[in-house]
Amino acid sequence: MKKKWRIPHTYAIIFSIIIMAAVATYLIPAGQYERGEVGGREVVVEDSYQRVEQTPITFFEVFTAIPQGMEKGAQIIFYIFLVGGAFGCIRATGAIDSGINKLVYRMEGRERLLIPVIMLIFSILGFTTGMSEESIIFVPIGIAIARALGYDTIVGTAMITLGAASGFIGGMMNPFTVGVAQGIAEVQIFSGFLFRFVVYLFILSIAIWYVMRYARRVKLDQRISVMYDIDIQTKQYDTATEQNKIAMFNFRHGLVLLALGVGVFINMYGVFNWGWFLTELAASFIIIGLFSGIIGGLGINKTFASFVDGMKVVAFGALIVGFARTILVVMENGVIIDTIIYALSNAISNLPDTLNVLGMYVVQIILNFFIPSGSGQAATTMPLMVPLSDILGIERQVAVLAYQYGDAISNSIIPTSAALMGYLAVAGIPYERWVKFVWKLILIWLSIAAVALVIAVMIGIS
């Protein structure tokens, strides 16, 4: 009897890509663009690509690239560990379980409304603030809500992250993607708002339908869940007996949730007004976690024990961020990233006129795997795409749209996305399980964006 084929281990998948990137440094000519500074941003100088000496990655350098990747991904990695530790303290107080249990009781008969409401809220944060890595801090709360409603870990993660992703794709007021790209393209900042808003409505509506459809099926039969075996092993499904063990909501629980709410508000205010990012957010969550442990009645020793336990839970996924960053390190050390950009840019100019914009779109999707930073991809590719759009007779606004959708949509599935690997780490979802859940939605999103780009060319959006 033949053995059933099994999806490779998550680390095996990432390591295979690292090996392929290393092999590519022998096959792809090394080359570089000159780079200059414009408005405080490093951008590629047009027509500056030139071949350089080949620097293929040796067998040993493949392995030295892994600690280098860990080092370059350290901020995200330790952010995940520290946030995981903070939520370990909060979970240990029982405040989230008892609070969610009370919320679900009060929402009896209207539970499904939580999914679209939460996704709408996070989509607004996505298109106004470019929420990406920041969504990681809300994933444990989303999971707690989903479990209490009889759903699985995937639903809890998806309603937070795909909500934020829908807004990020819409990008109407996203300063880190649309703002940067339009600035480089010399297009009025945040122009084309109405067109982007209409596309955003389609993107968000499809995402809500997709998550609610999956949630409904899981609630009817939990064995359908792509996380069923893992959730069972980690006792993430509450039986009726276990629910009876949840402590009644009390004053201490209220204080813990108040501390969490105030802390999250301060974090978001810090992001908007004080320029906070991962370091400040991590520090804030350490304070929230330790404070919650103390006021939640854990005591000093149990608070820190819970903090360590929380970090253990996310260790598997946190380190994947470093492995994923290794792929980029290998290509950077092999000096082949600019060659890939150069080749893809040239390929676009050879396409028929009606397919030029879709060619630009596909190029941005491919490049997002190698340059998952939205602002980084804008700074790298827009100086190339803008003159190309001028030559091809395509409005610069359309070139920005091609970048915007090519950058944003695949962030929810590519393994080089630090945000994706971060929230999967916090949620305890193996990468391959997430892909199994989300790939159809990604294809739908990609199709919507492709149609939108064609329409944008037809109506001459500028």
From TrEMBL:
Location of this chain's protein in the cell: Cell membrane
Keywords of this entry: Cell membrane, Membrane, Transmembrane, Transmembrane helix
Glycosyltransferase is among the record's keywords: no
Annotated membrane topology: Multi-pass membrane protein
Location, primary (coarse class): membrane
Record-annotated membrane-spanning stretches: 12-29, 76-93, 113-131, 137-155, 162-181, 193-212, 255-276, 282-301, 313-337, 413-431, 437-461
One CC-aspect GO term: plasma membrane
Pfam families, A to Z: DcuC (PF03606)
UniProt-listed InterPro entries: C4_dicarb_anaerob_car-like, DASS-Related_Transporters
Record-given protein name: YfcC family protein
UniProt source species: Virgibacillus salarius
